[in-house]
Structure formats: structure tokens, C-alpha cells
Write a structure and sequence with these properties.
The protein is of the alpha/beta class. It contains 13 helices and 21 strands. Helix 3 packs across helix 4. The two termini are 28 Å apart.
């Protein structure tokens, strides 16, 4: 089976749908190819936060902002890292992305810019919360695709996995894909890779980073874009860039995944607990509010793991730590899972956690001494009570991945390039397929989704122009 199009977009997720829609709206014949049985990609896992400066929502809320201020904020948060040209290219186009999404039916709540405390804060509120997290964007994408239904310009191939980019004389000219047992050949004048990252592939994690952390992922996002691009002669960039999210707990039904099931951000809930590593020792002030510092602290711990230790008084009197219902939490502590430990003494708690009892006892004692006089050894400030009333509790937390910093190397026109930096004609990439390393070595609130949508739109509007 063979079909001919103007443009093939591989991956119907955050960047892919905008790319395909924008190209089809220009009258190009577009094939949108998706390995899963539905569109959306990792948007089904996403919080759907989007950042942009100079939007009508900011103006309506009386917030003064500019792309210059957004860019300066980004460089402050990412410590001057990343690709500044691409970073600026996203920021300059982000407000237009908001307009496009609103036109397609995307909604956010509250309908105004906010600060997003899960990442280091911008100086200005410029993050927008999707009403139904990533599903709000999927809703807008369905609307956009439906508007094209009568034009015949866009053909959607679901449950179809691209196995190869066809390259003839150095020019990308189509793809080979499989759907079930059938092989499909699609020819085109341009191929856009928007397949997402490699979070679902332990093999890619090992090859690129030499580790396999807990990941929040879907099974179809396994590094296909990197494999397709490199097989076509492309390169990978930001191999050495990596930063986990801080303090997830393991999804007990899926050991390879984790998510934030505790309120462990000190901006949202000042801690009553202490954090200890595999040696039973504290490794950071638990009330450290700089999210980047917290994330880098967990990277220095063996296995990116630590234990949250607290006592009965904290369980009874502190603001709620867990997002679980009380009955579910009780089942976790009563059950066999080794990540949830309860004991009548610190020594017994250490044994249950596999920690050195003498060190954990000394760690708790040292914290309690500092708490009694208001002077903590690690310069922690919020110390409402000692850890002294049994029973005692420990919950293992993890640094975990929600995205991939390495990806397909592209130039400033989003053309896939080879190891010498030479573009491969007709081959483009956007979204997490190019990694998020170009955004810098830090997390920019709303930047991952916003830049993916923005660059998808950019390619759809410019490819074959």
C-alpha cells in the first residue's frame, strides 16, 4: 500500500496535531501518523500548564509583561543554559499559541495568568492552567481536526507505527509504517517528527544516561523519533543534560512509574518531616524553597531515593501530607509494600527501611536538639515540633522523570541535522522529540507544553512555504 502527500507528521501529540492542522489549513495534503489508537500522546499525563507573555489574559488581569521579561526570567531560572535562539523563538511566538488554542476551544482556569509553585517562580504570573489538565488541549485538538474533516486535506492514521524515514540522495521523501500486519508506504515532500521523548524506554535511558529512574510515561512514547532520525543520518543533542522532579512516590500497580502523591513542596506545605538518604542522614534543609536546588539535591543521592520520616504528632497535627484518602493510606502502612514503614521506635523504623539504626537514631537526635533551640544544623527554619512521639513513620520518595532533556538535534529552523550540523533536507522535528534541553538545564513553568505547541504550529505554517 502506497499513498502520496505533501507532508507527513509522525506523532499526533502535543506538537504533532498543531503541525498537521496548520499545514492542512494552508491547503497542503497531510498524513498524521500515530502509533497509539487515539490522538493526544503524553497530554493524557500532562497538567496542561502553558506559559506565554503579553497575552490578552494578562492584559485583562492588569499584568504588565513582555517577551523580553519572559526571556530574562527563563535565563535566570535555567542559569543561562540551553539554546538561546530557539528559546527566544518559542517565547516570541507563545502568545500567538495561546490565541490559536483559544480559537480551537481550549479553556483554562482560572481565566488569568498565575504563578506555578511546582517550578521555580517567574517574576510575573504568565502560566495558564488548563481546565481539565492535558485533556483540555486534546479537546481543542479534536475540534481543530473536526474543522478539517470536509476539506480532505488531512488523513489520520491511528494504530500505525512508523519504522523508517525514507531518504533518497540525502532528502527525506516519506516513511515506511506498519499497521497490524500490513506495511504502508507514505511518500511526501517533507516529514515532521513529533513522536515525543523516550520516557517509556528503559533501553534508551540506559544508553543515553546510564540509569533507569522511575518515569511517568505512556507505553507508545519510547524514543521512536530519535531512532528514526539517527537512522536517517541525524544526531542527538543534550545527552549530558538531566534533571528529575523531586519527591514522587511509586505507583504500586506499575513499578516503573511514579507521581506526586504527597504535598512535598514547602511553598504549598511547610514540612514537619525530615528527609534522610540511604545512609540514614539528612542531605538538605527540608524547607528549601528553591525547586531547582531540591531537584539537584536528590540527584546526588544513591538511586535518587530518600525517606520522609515523621512521628505520630506530625501525623495528627500537621497539614495533610498525603493526597490519599485515610483508608487508602492505612492500607499502605498495613500492607506488605516496603515503601511504607511504621514502627514503635526509631531503631525499629530503621530496620524496616533498611537504614543503619545508629545513624538514623543520631540523625533524629541531632534534628531534635536543633529544633529545641531553634538552630538547625542544615539551616532549616520551619521546625514546629521534634520527631519524638511514637509510632514513627517513613515513606520512600523518589526523584523521577516526567520528560527527556536529550532529543533529536535540530537547527534554528527546526530542521533535523547530522553530527556535523548539516540539515537533512525535508526532515524536521518538534516537541519532546527534540528534547527539552534547548529550554535550558532547569524546568520553566509551562514551557514544555507551550514550546511544543508553538513549534508544531510554526512548522505547520512554514513547511514547504
Amino acid at each position: 500500500m502506497s499513498q502520496t502527500f505533501d507532508v507527513i507528521v509522525v506523532g499526533a501529540g502535543t506538537a504533532g496535531v498543531p503541525a498537521a492542522v496548520a499545514a492542512a489549513e494552508r491547503g497542503l495534503r497531510v498524513a498524521l501518523v500515530e502509533a497509539a489508537q487515539d490522538i493526544g500522546g503524553t497530554l493524557v499525563l500532562s497538567g496542561g500548564s502553558i506559559s506565554a507573555a503579553g497575552t490578552p489574559m494578562q492584559q485583562a488581569a492588569g499584568v504588565e509583561d513582555s517577551t523580553d521579561a519572559h526571556f530574562a526570567d527563563a535565563l535566570r531560572i535555567n542559569h543561562g543554559t540551553g539554546d538561546h535562539v530557539l528559546l527566544r523563538a518559542w517565547i516570541d511566538r507563545a502568545a500567538d499559541t495561546i490565541d490559536w488554542l483559544l480559537d480551537k476551544g481550549w479553556t483554562c482556569t482560572p481565566f488569568e495568568p498565575v504563578f506555578a509553585p511546582e517550578h521555580d517562580l517567574y517574576t510575573t504570573p504568565r502560566t495558564y492552567r488548563s481546565t481539565q489538565q492535558g485533556f483540555s488541549l486534546i479537546h481543542a485538538y479534536r475540534n481543530a481536526l473536526a474543522q478539517l474533516a470536509d476539506t480532505g486535506n488531512l488523513t489520520l492514521f491511528l494504530g500505525t507505527r512508523v519504522r523508517e524515514v525514507i531518504v533518497n540522495d540525502g532528502v527525506a521523501s516519506g516513511v515506511i509504517a506498519t499497521r497490524g500486519e500490513d506495511e504502508i508506504r507514505l511518500d511526501a515532500r517533507a516529514v515532521i517528527l513529533t513522536t515525543g521523548g523516550f520516557s517509556g524506554s528503559a533501553d534508551h535511558w540506559q544508553k543515553i544516561h546510564g540509569i533507569t529512574p522511575l518515569r511517568y510515561h505512556i507505553d507508545t512514547v519510547v524514543g521512536d523519533g530519535i531512532d528514526l532520525a539517527t537512522a536517517a543520518g541525524g544526531d542527538i543533542w543534550y545527552r549530558d543534560t538531566l534533571l528529575p522532579s523531586f519527591g514522587g512516590t511509586r505507583n504500586l500497580g506499575a513499578p516503573a512509574s511514579a507521581w506526586m502523591n504527597t504535598v512535598i513542596n514547602p511553598i504549598l506545605r511547610p514540612p514537619w518531616e525530615i528527609y534522610v538518604n540511604a545512609d540514614g542522614e539528612r542531605f538538605m534543609p527540608e524547607d528549601e524553597e528553591i525547586i531547582d536546588a531540591r531537584e539537584r539535591a536528590i540527584m546526588r543521592q544513591p538511586g535518587w531515593t530518600f525517606w520522609v520520616i515523621y512521628d505520630e504528632k506530625a501525623r495528627r497535627e500537621s497539614p495533610q501530607l498525603f493526597k490519599f484518602e485515610p483508608e487508602q493510606l492505612a492500607q499502605l502502612f498495613d500492607g506488605p509494600d516496603e515503601d511504607y514503614v511504621r514502627a514503635d521506635s526509631i531503631a525499629a523504623l530503621a530496620e524496616g527501611c533498611g537504614l543503619p539504626a545508629d545513624r538514623l537514631t543520631a540523625t533524629v537526635d541531632l534534628y531534635n536538639r536543633g529544633q529545641a533551640v531553634g538552630s538547625d544544623m542544615l539551616r532549616r527554619h520551619h521546625m514546629p515540633a521534634p520527631i519524638a512521639e511514637g509510632p514513627f513513620y517513613a515513606v520512600r520518595h523518589y526523584g523521577f522523570s516526567i520528560c527527556c532533556y536529550p532529543g533529536i538535534r535540530v537547527d534554528h529552523d527546526l530542521r533535523v541535522v547530522d553530527p556535523q550540523g548539516k540539515p537533512i533536507a525535508g526532515l524536521f522535528a518538534a516537541g519532546e522529540a527534540i528534547g527539552i534541553g534547548f529550554l535550558g538545564h532547569g524546568f520553566l513553568s509551562g514551557g514544555i507544553v507551550s514550546s511544543a505547541v508553538t513549534f508544531g504550529l510554526r512548522l505547520g505554517r512554514e513547511v514547504l512555504a
